[in-house]
C-alpha cells in the first residue's frame, strides 16, 4: 500500500478516533438518561399501585366492619356509624347502604331517590366490585369510584386513590387489569392512555415516556415528558465530555503512533520482505586478460509498489539493524539459484563455468546460518556450489573464530570466499593473513584514485602485490574508465567490475551481456 493511501486511511481513522468517543458519549448519555427516567417512572408506578391498593384496603375494611356490626335499618345509629367510618377512613368520601338492590341510606342520611346497584365495572377479589365514575350523592355530582360488597358501597375520590407526591412533573394513573382507567392525575393523549392502561411495559411514544406495571387486578402507570430525560442527558453530557475528550485524544494519539510505526522504515521493510518486493540484478565481472564475462555480483534492489526503487545502501543497513537481513539473504540465494538453473536449462549447460558472487552480511557470516539454506537451495535447483562465490566485508570477519568456522564450512562445500571493499576497514592485513580467503575485492575508492595525484593511488600497487603474494585472485570494483582498466590489467589484476562494462542488469539482460562478451568472435 502506498504511503499516500496509508496517510489517507490514517487521517480517516484519526477523524473517527476523534469523533467516535464524543458521539458514543452523547448516545450513552441519552440512553442512560432514558433508562434512568424509565426506572424513575416504574418506581412511581409502583408507588401508585401501592397507594391505590391501600385506598381500596381501607374502604374494604370500612365495609367489612359495617357488615360485621350487622346494622341494616337505616336508623340514626346505623347512619351515624356509617358517617363515623366515612370520616375515619381517609380514602372514603361516603358510604351507602342498599336494601333490595336500591340505595336506602348513606353516611349523610336517608336517600330520597333510590339508586339501584348494577354490575361492577371491575370485579375485584373477595367478591368486591368497583364501579367507575359514579355520581356522588353529596358532592355536586362529582364522578366517584365506588367499592361495593353485599349491601354496602364506599365512594372513593379517584384522585385520592393515586395521590402520590412526585419529585418531577409526571402523570400517574391506575387502571383495571382489563384496561378500564380507574383514575388518572392529568391529561394524557387518548392513544397513550389506552396503551398504558392495557399492557405492562415501558417506552417512549411521541414526546412522552411511560411505564406501566401490574399486580393482582390493577395496573398502575406513570407518564412524563421526554424532554425531562433529554435535559438530564444534557446535564450528564457536561460531566462526560472531559472523559470523551481524553478518550478522543488518546485514540488520536494511538492512530498517529500506529501511523508512525506503519510508516517507519523498519515496518515498511518488514512488509516488503513479506511481500517479496526485492529483485536481484547482476553486475558483470570481467576477466581482464580476455575481456570475457566470467560471472556477476548479485545486487539486490527494493522495488516498491508505488514504482520507486530504494538503494541497498539504505535498506541493507536497516535490515541488518532489524534482523531482517537473514530473510533478505535467503531471498537473494533463492533468486540466484533459480536464475542459474534457468540459464543452465536454456543454454544446455553452457553456463556451468559462470559464477555469481553473493553478498553475505556480517551477521550471516558470523552465524553461518545461511550455509544450510544455500546448500539445500542449490541442491534443489541442481546448481553446483562452485558457481557461488561469497563476499563479505571486513566487518563480517571481525569475530575471526566465528568467521573462520563459516569460511571453512563454505570452502568445504565448494564456494569461493572473497573479502569485499578491501582497504576500507582497519584490520585488513591481519585478516588476510589469518583467514583462509580466496579472493580480494579492492574497494572502488582506490580504483577511482588511479592516475590521480591522490594518496590512495600510491596504495594500490601495494594492495595488488600483497594480494598476489598471498595467492589471492583480485577483483577491482568500480572500474569506470579505460585508463583504470589498462592500469589494472598491466598490474596483473585478474578481474574487474564497474560501469565501464555495465551497471547491474536484470537477469535476462545480464544473460544477453554474457552471451555477447563470450561469443567466439568477441
Ligand atoms: N548483504 C547484502 N548486501 C547487498 C546486497 N545487494 C547489494 N548489497 C550491498 O549494498 C551496497 C550498495 O550496493 P549497490 O547500490 O548495488 O552498489 C553496488 C554497485 O552498483 C556499485 N558499483 C558498481 N560499479 C560501480 C562503478 O563503476 N562506479 C560506482 N560509483 N559504483 C559502482 O557498487 C556497489 C557494489 O559494491 P560491493 O558490494 O562492495 O561490490 C553494497 O555494499 C552491496 O554490497 C545483498 O543482496 N546482500
TrEMBL record:
Classification via CDD domains: EAL
Residue ranges annotated for the EAL domain, each copy included: 262-518
Subcellular location: Cell membrane
Keywords of this entry: c-di-GMP, Cell membrane, Hydrolase, Membrane, Transmembrane, Transmembrane helix
Record field: catalytic activity: 3',3'-c-di-GMP + H2O = 5'-phosphoguanylyl(3'->5')guanosine + H(+)
Residues annotated as transmembrane: 237-259
Protein name: cyclic-guanylate-specific phosphodiesterase
Species assigned in the record: Novosphingobium clariflavum
Organismal lineage: Bacteria, Pseudomonadati, Pseudomonadota, Alphaproteobacteria, Sphingomonadales
